[in-house]
Amino acid sequence: MAQFDAISLLRAPLGERLSSTFVGGRLAAARYALALAFVGAAIALTLVLQYFHVEHNRFQFYAAIAAAAWVGGAGPGCMAVVLSTLGIEYFFTAPFFNLAVAPHELPDFLTFIACAAISVTVSTRLRRAEHWLMEARQTLETTVAQRTAALTIEIAERERADRAREESETVLADTQAQLARVLRMATIAECAAVAHEVNQPLTAILANAGACLRSLERVPPALDLARDAVVGIANDGKRASAVISRIGALLRNRKPSIAPVDLNAIVREVLALVQSAADRDGVVIRTSLSRSLPPAAGDPVYLQQVLLNLVTNAIEAMREISDRRRVLTVRSRLTRSGSVLAEVEDTGIGLAAVDPDRMFDSFYTTKPEGLGMGLSISQSIITAHGGRLWATPGRVHGAVFHVALPVAAAPEV
């Protein structure tokens, strides 16, 4: 330890070394001064006892030596032995005030020195033992404090881990509940999607069936009209089957069968299907179809369903309008970006009551009897075609729905 302190002192800056040397010198001088004071007190006490003719002994000198060794260590203790020996020989051994040692006093003199040396040794060792005990106590307290701090940190970490585990379990339970809800909603969405899309061909089938019955009830029966109605029923049945097949494939993330299609022809077929509904609601249908429109890349059944859904929604949006004409306009053109565009515009209630961020979400609808699946399915279909479906407000009234599709690739020669 002393070597380590010396090396540390030599490595310290000059100012610190001078300060440490000064402080250490003052402490050493104080310890030797205390040893001198203890011996002086013992001599003074012995002189006082001698003045009052009290028989004195050498106990006070042993006490001074022990105190000097206890407080100052071995060096001050040895100095106290030397000073006590000289003091006793000079003041209290005949001849007085003389340091000479008579032969007959030599055993007593050596006995005092031996006892004094033993006193120094015992006091020094006791002092070192106390110092070691204090250091051991400080080390133990430091170790206990460190262990306590480490244990406190470990307990806190375990508590945090327990809380994190509880939170994780709660989040996991919530996630499982949400997943179960999503699965239920997905199942409901699939059923609702099929029901929504099949509803239109089923309605046409019922209308043709009614027309067929009325034709057969005539006298004579209108067989030609009945035959046409039966043909319409068959065609609508096939269309319903195709719709179910296509919607099921779409919900299973299967890609549509892409082929070149005439978008104008699909528009005309859709308008023919809704003509009776438009006449019943007093809706005037107008078209502006480009004659030079290139073929679009798409599935005709899918695209027919999208346009039929948009046209039906437009007719229903004008059902409550009474202060202006109910006009449905369908346009087609080639955009500057090279896409085939179809637009369905109405003069209905517009988009004021619709949340634009949720318009194409599943189960979102503003109709009391609506399922909220039509626009969601339509957007999924157009996205699967690599196109885009969006809505904008009408020029004066109503809304415009835009369907942009990629142009079909030219056949390889």
Overall form: rod-shaped
Tally of contiguous helical segments: 9
What characterizes the major β-sheet?
Answer: 5 strands, mixed
Overall mean confidence score, pLDDT: 77
Helix content: 55-70%
What is the distance, rounded to the nearest whole angstrom, between the alpha carbons of the first and last residues? 98 Å
User: Runs with pLDDT <50, length 5+?
Assistant: 1-12
Give the SSE layout.
Blueprint: H1 2-11, H2 14-51, H3 59-72, H4 74-91, H5 106-216, H6 223-251, E1 259-261, H7 263-280, E2 284-289, E3 296-298, H8 300-317, E4 327-334, E5 339-345, H9 374-384, E6 388-393, E7 399-406
Parallel strand pairs: 2-4
Antiparallel strand pairs: 1-3, 4-5, 5-7, 6-7
Helix pairs in contact: 2-3, 2-4, 3-4, 3-5, 4-5, 5-6, 7-8, 8-9
Task: Describe this structure as you would to a colleague.
With 413 residues, this protein is α+β, with helices and mostly antiparallel strands. It is built from nine helices and seven strands, in the order H-H-H-H-H-H-E-H-E-E-H-E-E-H-E-E. The strands form two sheets. The protein has a five-stranded mixed sheet with strand order 2-4-5-7-6. Helix 3 packs parallel to helix 5 and helix 8 runs antiparallel to helix 9. It is rod-shaped. The relative contact order is 0.06.
